[in-house]
Structure formats: structure tokens, C-alpha cells
Design goal:
Blueprint (H helix, E strand, L loop, with lengths): L1 H24 L10 E12 L3 E12 L2 H21 L7 E11 L12 E12 L5 H10 L2 E10 L2 H29 L4 E9 L11 E2 L1 H6 L9 E13 L1
Antiparallel strand pairs: 1-8, 2-4, 2-5, 3-4, 5-7, 6-8
Length: 241
């Protein structure tokens, strides 16, 4: 009986070892890796800009710098009030730059000395209703803005995200078609999507600029938004079968 008991004590560790050994080889990671195909594709969509940004500079020259500063502040204040009357929200009027210093004119003999003092303030005005663009541009020049720069045509966040979503859908469709063509060449078929990754930032063409108050005033139609193209690039992995 002692002998049988001894044999049982030896068998149980052996059984445990065999079970552990079998589990090791049956683990999923020991199975054959899944075959995939990876492609990169672009999706594009057209979107109409709905925001125009114009920079306007108000400048004042006076012999006395402090007098120039006070007069320039009055001009800017009057301009801001006019913009608010036209329906421009306070958050859409932003000060870009303020500068003050001596001014110089052409002088026949050196040394050149300052002949005046000048103060300038540049505001960025965001126009969200293009129907008001003519009135707003006219108000800028009437209220003393001597230099206008723009328009910088862009898209609000909500519209941009909607456009990017459409571009992503187009990119996935293009990736599927491309992968099907490649798989067919090797007499295979694609399965489900395994992984999708976006390749960097989306791209959108730079805005169109028209510089100078005279150029803006001479245009029959002040702002023509046209269309921008939003592009998304994706890398998509499909399983192969």
C-alpha cells in the first residue's frame, strides 16, 4: 500500500506539469498572426467659408505724443461703438497691435530729426454675416481707419468639424476601394477594418488676401467667399481572407 501511495504522489505533479505545458502551447499568441493589408487614402469635401476677418489700422500724428495718443483713443472708441451699432459682437473685435513713437519726414540735410509723433492701433474685426460686409468696410474707413488688410476667409468650428467628418467618410471609402484592388491582384479578399489612424492634421488651402483700403473699396462685391477644400488623410488596415 505504501508503494501505491508513493506512485500517486509522483503522478500528480506530472499531471500538473503536462496541463501547464499544454496550456502554454494553446495560448492565443502562439497562433498564426492575422494577415492584414494597410493602405493610405485621402478624402476631400468642399465647404463655403462663413467667416471673414479684416484688420483695420487707425493712425494719428501730432507734434505732442500724448495728444496723439488721446486723439487716437477717441478715434478707436468711436470706431468700436460704430461696429457694435452694426451688430458686431464684442468678442469679434480684437486689438492686434498698439504702437507709439516719433515720426519722420523727408529732410534735406542730416542729422534726421523726428518731425512729429504718431500713435496707431490695429483692430481685427470678425464678420459673420457677409451681407453686412459692405456696410462694415465703409464704416471702418469713415471712422478713420487708414489701412485695411484682408479679408481672411475661414470657417467656424462647427462647420469645419462637419466638413472633416464628410472627408473622413470619403477617405474610408477610398481606402476600401484601394485595398480591394490590391487584394484582388493577389487573389485575396479583404475582411473587416482592423485599424484606422489619421495622418497628421487636415489640410485646407490658405485664405485669399486683398490688401489696402482702396482695393477693397473699388470691388463691386466686397467679399466673395468661394469655396475651400478640406482634405483628410487616413491609414486603414483591413484583414485579409
Amino acid at each position: 500500500m505504501a508503494r501505491i501511495k508513493l506512485n500517486q504522489n509522483l503522478i500528480w505533479p506530472l499531471v500538473v506539469l503536462l496541463v501547464a505545458f499544454g496550456a502554454f502551447w494553446l495560448k492565443p499568441w502562439q497562433q498564426k498572426p492575422q494577415e492584414t493589408i494597410s493602405v493610405t487614402a485621402e478624402g476631400k469635401t468642399q465647404v463655403t467659408p462663413n467667416i471673414a476677418k479684416i484688420s483695420a489700422t487707425v493712425e494719428t500724428k501730432k507734434p505732442n505724443l500724448d495728444n496723439a495718443r488721446r486723439e487716437n483713443e477717441q478715434k478707436v472708441s468711436s470706431l468700436v461703438n460704430k461696429l457694435r451699432e452694426l451688430g458686431i459682437d464684442e468678442k469679434d473685435i480684437k486689438t492686434q497691435n498698439i504702437s507709439a513713437g516719433p515720426g519722420f519726414e523727408i529732410q534735406p540735410y542730416p542729422p534726421i530729426k523726428p518731425t512729429t509723433n504718431q500713435v496707431s492701433t490695429t483692430l481685427e474685426v470678425t464678420i459673420r454675416d457677409f451681407k453686412k460686409s459692405d456696410t462694415i468696410i465703409a464704416a471702418l474707413t469713415e471712422q478713420g481707419a487708414t489701412n485695411l488688410y484682408g479679408p481672411n476667409l475661414t470657417i467656424d468650428d462647427q462647420t469645419l468639424e462637419q466638413a472633416k467628418s464628410k472627408a473622413r467618410e470619403a477617405a474610408v471609402d477610398a481606402a476600401r476601394q484601394k485595398s480591394q484592388e490590391l487584394a484582388k491582384l493577389s487573389r485575396r479578399k479583404i475582411g473587416k477594418v482592423v485599424k484606422i489612424s489619421e495622418q497628421g492634421d487636415f489640410s485646407i488651402p490658405p485664405p485669399i488676401f486683398a490688401q489696402g483700403a482702396v482695393e477693397l473699396q473699388q470691388k463691386a462685391s466686397q467679399i466673395q467667399p468661394g469655396q475651400n477644400e478640406v482634405t483628410i488623410s487616413l491609414q486603414v488596415d483591413f484583414s485579409l481572407r
